Amino acid sequence: MAQHWPSIQSFFQPDGTKPRKADVSKSGDGFSAGEVDAVLHPMGRSWNPRQEYTEQNIGDLVPGLGRVTFTGRVVNLFEMQTHSKMPRAAKGLTRVILKDDTGALVVRLWSANAAYQLCLGQLCTVHAAYIAHSDVTNPTIAVTPLMVSIFPERDSSCHFMVKHESDDTGVLSKTPLGHREGQPLAGLMTLQNFIEGGYEVATPRILVCVKSIGARKRFTSKNNKLSEKVDIGIFDDTAEASLVLWGSIGVSAAPWRASQTILLLTSPTIRLGRQPQLSITSMTHVDVDPRMNDAEWLRKIAQRLTRRECVNPEVKEGVFDVETVVGSEVRMLFTLADLDEFARAAPRGEGPPCKDSQDSSLS
């Protein structure tokens, strides 16, 4: 019988364990987790510019190349649609108008994955590498003559930052454009004058106070697109109206307070009807709580008009003996019928119990 020699495989016995697919480490793409998160969430990353940027006021900017930085408040914003299907193309575009005490300009903010939570009145800082002429084609409106287009997720030379509420003192960039202390603001009119034809002026301005804030309503438009709006009740000492906020700008009304928040509307549109309805266009400026004496005067007027009177007026001094009523051991109980009979038996001005007036209190 032939002798069988062991095969080479017999010297390498399996240990009975097989590597699982989850245990197999996959080769990375060369980027760390921090670098990936910085691209996907650009709003939360710390931006350190490699070159110096010149800080300027918006009114001092000139078109051309140059690394500049400026700070302003949001006075208008709306989202625009992008139609490109390229993988690296921008998925969103927000048109923002920033204003400081010297001027205003348009910021075209492109985004791919970032979600910019913008609201009216927010304080923002922009770093850009060039300034261009504005995309405004209306020759009668020259308040935004310049424009800057930035894509922070793709271009490291530009940046867009929203100041945190704790860093905003509420003083910077609050003065309306063209305002001079002790002089009337150009184009400023009452709400009643605006309704009666003041909207035909080239750049009308109205100063109103928030009266009520409605709920955000969502509906489907005729183009089968989901839209939302917020109705804001506004008033001044002459008239009342409603302000409609369409789209993403409706979030701005969340921190507003009735009889407290003052709005300076520049070039709004109006729809006349039973109740005038104002709306915001791409040319409208909305200054939230502007720094001007007229705003403080209107706030005081609003608080006085909306102050609720006490249901139970104060008891006149000397009419009731409060200590006796509170500490008396014997208390008389009257029904409403007894009080009605007593009042009818002694009309005003007749009988000694009433003399010239009747004061009573019920709880």
Written description of the protein model:
The protein has helices at residues 33-40, 191-195, 293-305, 322-327, 336-345; strands spanning 54-55, 64-80, 92-99, 104-111, 123-133, 146-150, 159-162, 188-189, 205-213, 217-220, 226-235, 240-246, 262-266, 269-271, 277-279, 285-288. With 363 residues, it is an alpha+beta fold. Strands 8, 9, 10, 11, 12, 13, 14, 15 and 16 form a nine-stranded mixed β-sheet that branches. It has a five-stranded mixed β-barrel with strand order 2-3-4-6-5.
User: What are the low-pLDDT stretches, counting only 5+ consecutive residues below 50?
Assistant: none
Q: Roughly what percent helix?
A: 10-25%
What quaternary form is this?
Answer: single chain
Specify the biggest β-sheet.
Answer: 9 strands, mixed
- Average predicted local confidence, pLDDT: 80
Question: How many individual helices?
Answer: 5
Task: Give the ordered list of helices and strands.
Answer: HEEEEEEEEHEEEEEEEEHHH
Rg (CA only): 34 Å
How much β-strand is present in the residues? Answer: 25-35%
